[in-house]
Amino acid sequence: MPERYVHAIRLEDPGSEEPAATRERLKDGFPRGATRRMTQLGLLVGTTLDGLAPRTDDAVVYASSYAESRALEGYLESFPTASPTLFQTSIHPSAVQQSLIGRQHPVGEFFPLTGRGHLVAQALQTAMLARAPRVLVCGGEERGTWLLERGYASARTFAFAMALGAAAEGAVARVALERSGEPARELSLEQFFDRLRARATIDQMAAPGVRLTLTWL
What we know:
The chain is α+β, with helices and mostly antiparallel strands.
């Protein structure tokens, strides 16, 4: 049964805060002028990752179902003169890249993942298979506008990051995956975020054949 220990967690839950307000609130945590082209999700994910002080030998696992919804909306609206800047910030791994590239901060491995109901289990499986001594698992969404009306964006903005390692000493929680033949239930990224925020225990089939447990210590 693969298991890891959570040594630190950072959360951002801005509610209905608009991107401009997020930029103003968080701009002092980034290099001067860097936030001008950053997305709301990039600011939030970057802030949570910064709170864990990424190291060059870390692996980073990033999970998001919709990623840069606002940038994608802007990019599509920019046709027929498509914006290269909006294209660059609309790609799926952008939220992590905006922060790490802006700081010129390398990491050992980077695994961007997308999905729906089984995304959390897939992200944690990836983290437990990574070779790095410490794995940063991060994720989040940003609330869309017209893409949300069509069912292609998140209805909520949030971000999280947590540091996973093999040692129990100093840990705040234990995460484990085990095989099971019980029927799988959906565990969305938003539901996982709410469990982290509430420090709630998780014990459920998070993907076919995979039971996820999260126990607070």
